[in-house]
Amino acid sequence: MSLIIFILCLFFPSKILAATTVSILNFPAEVLVGETFPITFNVTASDIGTTFHYKAVSNNSDISIFPACANRYDDCQNLIIGENFLATASAYLKINQAQPQNSIKIRIANHFKHQQSFDSNPVDIISLALPSISPTPEISIIPTPTLFESQYPYITEIMPNPEDGSEWVEFYNPHEQNIPLKNLCIFDSSQNKKCLSVDIDLASHQYYQFTFSGSFLNNSGDSVHFNQETISYSKAPKNLSYSFQSDGNWCFAPPSPGFGNFSCQDLSVESSELHPVDIIFIPDKIRAGEDFNITLSLRSADLYSIRLVHPFSSPYFAFNNYQNDFATVNLSLSASQKLPEGKYPLLFHLKKAGSNKIYDYQQGTLEVLPFIKKAKSKKTTTTKTKSAPLCPISTPAVLGTQSAIARQAVFTPSSPDFNTFSWLFLATGSILFLSPILFPKLYSD
Predict the structure, then answer these.
(1) Quick one: which of 162, 271, 319, 432 has the fewest CB in 10 Å?
(2) pLDDT in tens, 392-410
(3) What is the pTM of this model?
(4) All domains in the chain, ordered by first residue
């Protein structure tokens, strides 16, 4: 018996020695609550091509696994043992509570009815609470701009949703010389424009409030394009301007036309009742005219659907695969070819099933590259060639001075003459003409 085992180990070492094991390779020592992070692990097994499903588990922590179907064993999270009887994969998850120790391990199960499962060694990860930052209500100072290629003013403030009165955009002159404002134009995301008709010069380090009538700027989110710069905002709160800050960022703040801008307004109180919606996946960059996906997660036991409303709109997509009051949705989107280049904040509308109430979410940014028009392939033109004549054409050298083509005879084919009545008439007449000779007795007395 020992000899048989020795022979098997000698010729089939992977089959005998490679028991199924799960080993965690990399994991973070500490994470922020709600932050998505990977745990990378190896799986060794005795059979090449064996498929395992996997998930992360914890006995003492509230964790979420992505995608949502990984909360249970499913085909969406699988690995296949490779040629070296080894496979490597990563489980993505986040910890939903702050505590000094979260004991987490990876569990795999055979894809066939999950009859047998295997656990890795547990690892400890510290989860930290998100720091709270309270903005200070002090006036910001417009920073000194970098060198411009041409002398244009800055846009420093945008008022898309005034309590009463007109919408407006504020210009600031960062240069040492005056700037003429006449015929300067701004554009929205639909390439509509508003142009300055005033014949004035904006003095150095001064502001000018450009007001205009009508609903030029969308309250639900829009973009302002000026001098190769794109400024995009999401849903505009009532009577708050989208303001340029001293750190180079933009945010909604109390309006201050003609002066330096106020610090950002804290809008967290308005969204206190919102359900936690997080972005699991978003591409770093897309190109106008391109199809792409955004994956979102939702922590709620109720049925919801969500859609993108800025920088362009999409239909509603329903959250599904609910597990432990957690669900995900994949938004299949297509950016318009006319979408201008720039970085856009994303605004979503969340709607509860059976209700008309809509929740607004501003989550993440999307960088859009300009559309590239594909070059049209040149059509190959085919020249029709005349078919060769049935009979060869003699050359003028043979036929003399006239063209050979002019000397060709035209023949019209005709069927041979044949008329049954003509032949019958001729035969009858011949018999009558020769009857005295052929039948003399008929003509004798």
Answers:
(1) 432
(2) 444 444 334 444 344 444 4
(3) 0.39
(4) 7-128 (2.60.40.10), 154-265 (no CATH), 271-369 (2.60.40.10)
